[in-house]
Design brief:
Two copies of one chain form a homodimer. By secondary structure, chain A is mainly alpha-helical. In chain A, 62% of the residues lie in helices and 9% in strands. The N and C termini of chain A lie far apart (66 Å). The structure holds a DNA duplex.
Chain lengths: 186, 186
DNA sequence: GCCAGCATGTAAGGAGTTACATGATTAT
DNA sequence: ATAATCATGTAACTCCTTACATGCTGGC
């Protein structure tokens, strides 16, 4: 019973989403997976389907085909006992990867010596605007989750996210003058 | 003169590092690239070499082989005029990708209903410890950069990083009790 | 004797993406 | 008319990673 090669986090993410619901199609999952976008790259549609096939092959999800009138047929998935056990094992036993961040704005600021300062400031301003929009979204998400114990953990993550994006706007605003200083020099 | 397919950000990152220095080998770059690790996944050694070959093929860097006694031969790279122009074009003209985050801890907390609360708390504690270590590193980096105008932009990024990781420790500490609350329920 | 450092490179493969294909229904 | 929604799936490709290969020098 050799443990096969490790399953990627995205597969666990999909399995986890299924574990919080009853039965979902790949199409449904695409919407659910958007909930991850604040803290985890939400997978492409094609990947959702391929991960579902992987999970089915592992016996971690069960599938059921449902015909519909006037709509394409659905394939509904739900977690199996093995799937729940796999998720629990992942949560309890596997090492947590360090967060992977690719911050394209910071990459550009890092090489800011080659840009016009006004351009950098504009990029920072755009970023603050975008972060504020995420904040607004997250506030709504947080409100929708309420204090329903069923969504306690997503709610905790949303609260983290609120702090996260608030800190981003503050950090962006804080370094904006440094870039301005560079502007007044050249 | 059809614009070929876009060059990945990592290539610009390497080009940018070369633009801040005189001449570097792939081996040297591996160390320099570590500076990116706080805000951008720092590339694997093999990728550094392959990106350098790509940049050389584009004419954005020039290479020069240097024989050494008692050491393997070096291949030193420096940016060309075209390379500088490409970097400037990237900074000024190309759209900034939204930050991509893969926060494995938050993914696990999101699915926390399947974990023992003590486990989640331990994960959070580990994360806080790790974030504090990053903070210590960043403080040192920031101190080393000083107020040398040459490193103004890296310094600004380091300051962003200090806020970022401080916010992470705070967010982690803030949601820890929510997880604890779950513990007292079950 | 052994490991770290210097220095480059190949091979294999996994994770993830975009774009395409199909086709009916409903709303604008 | 046209777009969005429902619903799944394939093809091609890129990015990036790990592991391996090579080999000399210097310090402990």
């Amino acid at each position: 019973m050799g443990r096969a090669r490790p399953v990627p986090p995205t597969a666990y993410a999909i399995l986890g989403l299924l574990s919080m619901t009853d039965e979902l199609s790949g199409y449904d999952l695409r919407r659910w997976a958007r909930a991850l976008r604040f803290f985890y790259v939400s997978p492409a549609q094609s990947q959702i389907y391929s991960e579902l096939r992987r999970l089915a092959a592992l016996g971690w999800v069960a599938q059921r085909d449902v015909a519909q009138e006037a709509r394409p047929a659905k394939r509904l998935y739900r977690t199996t006992e093995d799937g729940q056990a796999a998720l629990r094992g992942w949560l309890e036993g596997s090492p947590v990867e360090p967060p992977a961040l690719k911050h394209a704005l910071l990459l550009r600021i890092f090489f800011g010596h080659l840009a016009r300062p006004e351009r950098l400031q504009a990029l920072i301003d755009d970023y603050i605007t975008a972060a504020r929009m995420v904040l607004a979204e997250l506030e709504q998400v947080r409100a929708e989750l309420g204090d329903d114990p069923r969504w306690r953990f997503p709610a905790a993550v949303a609260e983290w996210g609120l702090r996260y994006y608030a800190a981003e706007t503050e950090a962006a605003a804080a370094i904006r003058p440094c870039v301005a200083e560079a502007a007044s020099r050249e």
